[in-house]
Amino acid sequence: MRGAALVFLLIISACGGSGPPASNTPSASAGQSEASAPPASPTTGPSPLVHCSGTVPAGDNLVIGAVTGDPTVVVRDIQDPAHARNLCTFAAAALAPQFVTGTTVAYETADRQILKADLSGGPATMLATYSSGFDSGQYAFSPDGRTLTYLDHNAWHLVTQSGNRVLTTLPEAPARGVSFNQDDSFLGFSPDGVYVAYFQTFHVGGTGETAPDQIRKASDESLVYSTSGGTMAVWASAPGRLFFRDPTGSLKRWDPGAGVSTATSVMWVRPKSSPDGRWIAYTTPTDAGVDRVGFYSVQANRVTNEIGPGRSGVRFLTNDLVWYIGERACSTCFGGQPSPTGVTYIYSIAGASEVTSRLSVVYDAWPRVTAPAL
Questions:
Q1: pTM of the entire structure?
Q2: Domain span including residue 113
């Protein structure tokens, strides 16, 4: 999934779009640390900040988001899109929500805690805390929900049943501006959960164990690949290939067996993969001052469709359905970035058709990984 504050800054500032609210907004005073070290194991936390009106159906397609006209964040069942319904409601204090499993969610709090809560009820569980700082608080779960990875200022953590370990400590991120179409911070597990990657453009200057772009084996935390100059990464296919590009748009593919190869050329921004790994949706800037949405076929290694201009902020709802926002050019907006029109859309890849959406915001969707894939 998608990150917390940095991704929120990049997406919201760039396109007025769909990033989750978060408490860990980057600041120039990144070197300051205010929180205590993360706990070595999960601890029981406060009452959950999510409440459900009934049982969440097993196996249904679910979305965390908000419906037009109501800012309340909900868990929404979209198994039957024509009769979608809200199942659970998040309190406003729950920040950066995402799915852990189909029956468990996670979120952050203003005092920089990462908690998970079972949708069937019961107390929340505190998994980790993090300090204030640039990129701090971004987090992701393995596909089976058993492993958490997160960032605490310069430290990259992995939380398993055996405890909370620091994978590496990266160089300090300097205070500087953000290039919305080049800068990114991606943190996530491969579809099979074997590998975990952190690809970013801020904590630069290191090599090897401290390189800005890394892939590690989750089981023993070993470094299996590192580089620099990569950006806009995403896992796709199965058991897992990592796609990323360089600043010129040359698309690279890392494979556990074959290593790194050049795929094609596409200047994608904030890519997202379908649950089955067959598609990668993304945004690209246009000369008109707004963005367009594109689709990359992993099987064919080529771009197949482009929608817009005036579309950005993609999120897969299912293997076929992609949600995104409408946008307009804005010369007076921060950095000259586009602004949202207030209308959102859902696109069917199979039907090559677009309809308006009732979802005003999408933070996450479940299932995140489905089989079979490539």
A1: 0.88
A2: 5-28+47-366
